[in-house]
Each structure stands twice: as C-alpha cells, then as structure tokens.
Write a structure and sequence with these properties.
The protein is mainly alpha-helical. The protein has helices at 4-30, 37-46, 53-58, 67-76, 98-119, 125-145; strands at 51-52, 80-84, 92-96. A three-stranded antiparallel sheet has the order 1-3-2. A hairpin with a 7-residue loop joins strand 2 and strand 3. The protein starts with a helix and ends in a 13-residue tail after the last helix.
Length: 158
C-alpha cells in the first residue's frame, strides 16, 4: 500500500493528463487541428497580455513542454504574433492574434460550461475553492522545498 502522500501526487498527475484529454476533445469538437492541448492552454493563459518567453516560463504558463517550441508552432499557425522588444532587441514578445483570440474565447466558453456542469456532480463552488486553497498550500510546500539540498530535512509549509 502506498503512502497517502504518494497517492496524492499520482492523482494530481492523472488529473492533469485527464484535463489535457478533455481539452483535446474540445479542440477536436471545434475542428481545430493545428494546435495541441498544451499549446492551447499556453494561449489561454497569455490572454490579452503581451509577454516574453521568460515571462511565460516564470509565470508557469507552460505545461511540461518546451515553451519556445510551442510558441514557435503557435506563431507558424497564426495564433500568436511575435515581435522583438523595443527595449531589449534580444528579447521577443508574444501576443494573441485575431485567430488566437477567437480560440481563447471558445476555451473560455468551454471552461464556463464545465464549471457549470461541475455543480451537477455534487461539487459546489465552496468545495472547489477549498481544493484550490489546499493545492496552493501544497504548491508552496513543494516550492519551498526546492531550495533544500539532499542533506537538509524537509519542513512543513507555514
């Protein structure tokens, strides 16, 4: 029998993969074939901002894949516009194109529809808010432990 901590981490990973599958099904339903689920979530998180690749990475707006590759593919397929920064010519900034904004709108509708449907499962908004708070504490615990070396003990999050 695995420790509850391990079961939790395995469940988080399975949920993430399942969510990516849900996004893929929605993309198929939209008839979108030129962007994948990970790329569409990066696109969704960019929103109306104009960001550098470094900012995308720092904000965690990527999902385990090479963000530069995904941005390149989204630029090639017309979802993102990429321009050199006026202040630092070594840096490029990305923003959604009209095509990207249209897909983001569809994803927003999907998220709203799913959130409404979640209510019918017995999970209430308060349950989701409690879960989000718990996951933020877990994120803080894991982030805090990144600074520790192997010879230092793991401590609990404050």
């Amino acid at each position: 029998m695995h420790h509850p901590y391990y079961r939790m981490t395995a469940l988080i990973e399975r949920l993430h993969r399942c969510f990516l599958d849900v996004v893929k099904v929605e993309l198929d339903r939209f008839g979108v074939q030129d962007i994948n689920n990970v790329q569409s979530l990066i696109l969704y998180n960019i929103g109306m901002d104009e960001l550098t690749i470094g900012e995308l990475t720092a904000r965690g707006y990527y999902l385990g894949s090479n963000v530069s590759y995904n941005v390149k593919k989204m630029v090639e397929n017309g979802y993102l516009a990429q321009e050199r920064s006026q202040h630092d010519r070594r840096s490029t900034r990305v923003r959604l194109t009209t095509k990207g904004q249209a897909l983001r709108s569809k994803l927003e509708t999907m998220f709203s529809r799913q959130a409404d449907a979640l209510e019918g499962t017995g999970l209430r908004v308060g349950d989701v808010e409690t879960l989000n708070a718990t996951l933020r504490r877990l994120e803080g615990f894991w982030s805090g432990n990144l600074a520790y070396t192997a010879d230092q003990p793991v401590t609990s999050a404050a």
